[in-house]
User: Fold this.
Amino acid sequence: MNKSALQVARAAYQPKLPKALQGAVAVKEGAATESVANQEEIKKLFPNTYGMPIVTFEVADKKAELPAMNVGVILSGGQAPGGHNVISGLFDGLKSFNKDCKLYGFLGGPSGLTDHKYIDLTADIIDEYRNTGGFDIIGSGRTKLEETEQFDKGIEICNKLGIKALVIIGGDDSNTNACVLAEYYLQKNTGIQVIGCPKTIDGDLKNNMIETSFGFDTACKTYSELIGNIQRDCNSARKYWHFIKLMGRSASHIALECALQCQPNICLISEEVEEKAMSLDEVVSYIAEAVATRAADGNDFGTVLIPEGLIEFIPAIKKLIAELNDVLATPEAKEVARNKQIDYVKEHISEENLKVFNSLPTEVAQQLALDRDPHGNVQVSLIETEKLLSHMVATKLEKMKKAGKYVGKFAAQHHFFGYEGRCAAPSNYDADYCYSLGFNATRLIANGKTGYMSIIKNTTAPAEQWIAGGVPITMMMNLEKRNGKMKPVIRKALVELDGAPYKYFVSKRNVWARYTSYVYPGPIQYFGPTEVCDQTTKTLALEQQK
Assistant:
């Protein structure tokens, strides 16, 4: 492998561990748990893994001696910085029990398990990937584990390799898969444990047990560096409005965190748009009025942050999408040729939704009618919301100019920051957090746990004070409609409009909107003063402030 100077230096970094994981470990169990909603339905679906207690690890007096065990690991879903360190933590955690333990990596995501494609992750391989971004050590994939045949294929390869436990590193859907798999393996008395690790740069896999999903810290710092660079250029050229779309289909965590770091003129929060039942025209008017106010001060430039999934949170469009999802999930719809989809949709949706559909620009309407992703969702990343909004703002400003309410010049630039953050080299926080998650997973395995997610808490404190443990995945579940059917899934975490991060943002945004209050975060720092290189996200700092 060809390595940069930074990669060579970074390989020497030893991630920090919570004190409870540094030596002998004792397990402390709490009370029985319940799912966040649909308790009776979830209990019926998961009779063997429902109601298990939250567990916390504490320092013990005597280290347990364990026989050699084999463990399998799967990377699932989109990439997130720090995945390699989860695997490094798994490897080191297993070797700390017994040097003869083995870690097998299934290639290309969950399909590697069902297709029996794997590699033996040796020390030489692991050392090549410590503290690096990406998922390329074994690759990832989006195959859903839903069918009995898939589960049985997994049992077959685990028995062949002598695998005692599987660790699935993924987001909400991937960890839902992990829970389903754990339930099935318990039902069949296979002796195979399943542990999940919380991953997604979108930040929507979080709750009172999971402070943050790994990769969010690094991705937000990477995007904030780029936004800061654009804002510096914006303040230098003084002639463009930059419309910047950011990752985050289901929630606006990334946009909010980047706003807190960079202080742009405008940041749209999808959850607020939905709460206020704003129309598309109202969103456009909000931006246009801010542009006009700055123009009156002589500033024909600015920045607008837009969450990727904004369009789905506008109530009228959300209602339209919900019906489109049902219509397009039918067997008949799947047989319709792509060039006939628009006509088919118009014939099968309600009059109210047809009116909304016809009001949209042709390109957006076409994109809403495209095939869904594997989870039955609109592929919002294909909808150029940033261009749609800037075009509509320009039209609105022309009308305002004729009415004497706008005196400036408007020119727009467009950006979509997505892949730029998914595989960045992990920040110090993510390097430590991910390593701890992986190491902690081996302690859950050693204590016979299955159907649990590895969790690390108290992460705004120094790493030694972090709290390690596990939470039953069923505790985070509810029922949602997917591909036209109600299915058990982990509930996504939205931006809380009564939460400290959002409230802080609201207290500042009017000033940021009018004045040039930009902050330029610069690149992720690995080495240097603590105030530069060891800070958590603004979101976590505000949520955990004492």
Summary: The first strand starts at residue 25 and ends at 29.
